[in-house]
Amino acid sequence: MDRDNILLTPGPLTTTLRTKLAMLKDWGSWDTDFNAITAKVRQQLLDIIDGHDDYVVVPLQGSGTFSVEAAIATVLPRAGHLLVLDNGAYCKRMAKLATMMGRRTTVLSSPENESINLTRVEQAIIENPSITHIGLIHCETGAGVVNPLLAISELCKRLGVGLIVDAMSSFGALPINAKDLTFDALVSASGKCLEGVPGMGFVFIRKAILDTCEGNSHSLALDLFDQYAYMERTGQWRFTPPTHVVAALAEAIQQFIEEGGQSARLARYTENSKILLEGLGELGLKPFLKDEDIAPIIITFLAPSSANYDFKTFYNTVKAEGFLLYPGKLTDIETFRVGCIGAIGAKEMHQVVSAMALCLKQMNI
Ligand SMILES: *Cc1c(COP(=O)(O)O)cnc(C)c1O
């Protein structure tokens, strides 16, 4: 059998054979066998953040954005005011979806190569007493910047505003512990650092605010309060669940635990990122961010300055060697991105560096 292409993209990403094999069975959505899988996954997700005391977790069908939209719809009151801390594409998406559902939204813009500045956030909250919630992207996958979740959580607590976190591309890899920080909602999805397949998200919601969430949502399908209440009552998903995705996530979480959990995963991704930075550095390729700001999730590289460079050719040549890269997502500068996440390790990272070396040579760069 040919090897599948290795995905160096931040979701979907490369999954193990065990995870893929877990999808070879059909499940009845109402059946107790499937309900047991859902229940176990929910318990294990709460284990990962040590959140059993203060949080519940609500899974939702769809890609990660569906869960971000649902978290805001459910947690932000209709009369609430969301301040989105913007340093990239996913922040802009959060602001857009909040605006489109009619919630009052203000954007605090920052450069996409810098993490969010706390002093500016504090100032913005003090100047706008109507702000009720902060919207934060933990790892802004657009350029790969990690924002200071812990410090922003402390700031929100001190100033008495709520916090809604998109931790999509960081959850499972970077430390997130409910005993260290407070948030109203925190969102991630199956097909990111837990290394499942895409198709569902999940939202941690603080128990203390759960009752206030009833009736907030303008949307039936995105109402996480309703999804939660139904799931607690029946053990089932409200509407047809992505059964194969849930089964694959259960298997992926099992392997996450066997590997050694978040710290082991972070160690593997860190090793991946080191090989990549060193290897591409030797080829003369430079990262977009300062070294100290680079997170081992996804790395943005500046495109070679040579006139011979063309992303499409680069992409296709590297693909012919079995690796899928990711285009840049910055507005002004030409870049490309390489993910360090997924069921890949040192071997695959060395191989992709060789594939890129070959390609740059062919392009006369
Ligand atoms: C992947 C990702 C999402 C979700 O994107 P989808 O295309 O809906 O899966 C949201 N926020 C961040 C930061 C992400 O990395």
TrEMBL record:
Its EC number is 2.6.1.37. GO terms for biological process: organic phosphonate catabolic process. Substrate binds at residue 337. It catalyses: (2-aminoethyl)phosphonate + pyruvate = phosphonoacetaldehyde + L-alanine. The keyword Transferase applies. Involved in phosphonate degradation. Homodimer. Belongs to the class-V pyridoxal-phosphate-dependent aminotransferase family. PhnW subfamily. This is 2-aminoethylphosphonate--pyruvate transaminase. It comes from Entomomonas moraniae.
